[in-house]
Design brief:
With 246 residues, this protein is mostly helical. It has ten helices and no strands.
Length: 246
């Protein structure tokens, strides 16, 4: 009675061939464990090593209809992702920073605080920062007002020097802040003084076409604006003799 020949599945051959290809165990040890002949294990190892490049070279079959449908879904998703932030930014134009900050949900399950700040168009630091109330300095208001009424041409530097002479310990930044809070601005000669007012009447040139051929026929004068430096009560000088604040 002849012995029935054993048959092996492709999965079993691939498994044994990969084990032999790894080289962790000897071929005869793998053959003894799987109860096969060592020659078969060597053959399967050779087949696996030769056919592996073919596996990576083959492309899986794709249904054209499914590919077109998937591409359409991806384009629709991209368009929606582009449209939603633009729509949100248009709606947020009329909202202030405080209102946008109140819309953030720190415990949102999917969107982090950074992502929410980016969508709302605010800096992440502005969300964590707690606004501090402006410091009121009523003691310095009165000297500022009195000095400004007496010398309205004082800027922040001259105002600082004058207040220091009066015994107030202030620097220029504090003076600028107080002048900004009180709405004070130095009165001085602004640029473009020679620009004509469009509402004023334009007078004609009376000497146009006139031939000047005798003495004292025409008189002319030149009106020039001469800026004069206003007198300042401050006579503060540094150690080098240079006036401070100019």
């Amino acid at each position: 009675m002849s012995k029935k020949r054993r048959t092996f599945s492709p999965e079993f051959k691939a498994q044994v061939g990969l084990e032999a290809l790894k080289g962790i165990e000897a071929v005869h040890a793998i053959a003894a464990r799987h109860k096969v002949h060592p020659v078969q294990v060597s053959q399967w190892k050779k087949e696996v090593s030769e056919r592996l490049p073919e596996v990576f070279g083959q492309k899986p079959a794709v249904d054209p209809a499914q590919s077109i449908a998937r591409e359409r879904e991806l384009f629709e998703e991209i368009g929606r992702l582009k449209m939603e932030p633009e729509w949100l930014k248009k709606k947020l134009v009329h909202l202030g920073t405080e209102e946008r900050r109140s819309m953030i949900e720190p415990k949102h399950p999917k969107l982090s605080v950074s992502q929410q700040c980016a969508l709302l168009g605010i800096a992440r630091a502005s969300y964590y920062r707690q606004p501090q109330p402006e410091r009121q300095e009523p003691a310095a208001d009165a000297p500022h007002r009195r000095t400004y009424l007496a010398y309205p041409f004082f800027g922040s530097r001259q105002m600082r020097n004058w207040l220091r002479l009066q015994g107030h310990r202030v620097n220029r930044k504090r003076v600028q802040r107080l002048m900004r809070q009180l709405g004070l601005e130095a009165i001085y000669r602004k640029p473009n003084l020679s620009a004509a007012n469009p509402q004023h009447r334009v007078y004609p040139y009376l000497l146009k076409g006139l031939i000047v051929d005798r003495p004292n026929q025409v008189w002319a004068t030149d009106i020039t604006y001469l800026p004069i430096k206003a007198a300042s009560p401050i006579s503060v000088r540094s150690s080098t003799g240079t006036p401070v604040g100019y």
